[in-house]
Amino acid sequence: MHAQSSSVGRQAPASEISRWVGFEVAQQAFALRIGCVREVVPEASIDAVPGAPRFVLGVAALRGRIVSVLDLHGRLQVEGQGLSGDQNCLIVVESAGEVLALRVDRIGQLYSLQREVIKPPPTVAVPGTDNAVSGHVVFDDSLLTLLDLDALVDAITLN
């Protein structure tokens, strides 16, 4: 049986929509695909781990599990005003079978984005962030940077 290709009577395929969890780091908007986010923790206690790599802030006990907490400020090279030292908003993610928490300044909103609105990252990238940025979405007065979790975590855990 052969499939026929015809546009008569067919509708154009619906735009592919992806869902993202938004957050802020140093007053800049970022998002991760919702499929890699396990939960959002608006406030958590982080305990330092002596001798940990520079992007590892420490560990947190979440639902009876100890998870490493990674700092996105340094990884994304967006130092600046963010949280006060006693606030720890965490996005708990899973990458390569490992559960980790990402410390962010503020939890944002959920985004449903059509593929057409996602622009590719610029060809000139900041060293250390080039593979982590998967795209950008331009809104009227702001920019949302979409991140690739696996590339983001790989670079952190290698440093």
List the helices and strands and how they pair.
Layout: E1 17-25, E2 28-33, E3 37-41, E4 56-62, E5 65-71, H1 72-76, E6 89-95, E7 98-104, E8 106-114, E9 133-138, E10 143-147, H2 149-158
Parallel strand pairs: 2-10, 5-7
Antiparallel strand pairs: 1-2, 1-8, 3-6, 4-5, 6-7, 9-10
Structural summary, described in words:
One of its GO terms (cellular component) is cytosol. Residues 17-158 form the CheW-like domain. Pfam families: CheW. This is Purine-binding chemotaxis protein CheW. InterPro entries: CheW, CheW-like_dom_sf, CheW-lke_dom. With 159 residues, this protein is mainly beta. The chain has a single domain, classed as CheA-289, Domain 4 (OB fold (Dihydrolipoamide Acetyltransferase, E2P), Beta Barrel). It has helices spanning 72-76, 149-158; strands at residues 17-25, 28-33, 37-41, 56-62, 65-71, 89-95, 98-104, 106-114, 133-138, 143-147. The strands form two sheets. A five-stranded mixed sheet has the order 8-1-2-10-9. It has a five-stranded mixed sheet with strand order 3-6-7-5-4. β9 (133-138) and β10 form a beta hairpin.
Can you describe this structure in just a few lines?
With 159 residues, this protein is mainly beta.
Helix content: under 10%
Number of helices: 2
Compute the gyration radius: what is it?
Answer: 18 Å
CATH 2nd-level architecture: Beta Barrel
CATH topology (fold) name: OB fold (Dihydrolipoamide Acetyltransferase, E2P)
Q: Walk across the major sheet and give the strand order.
A: 8-1-2-10-9
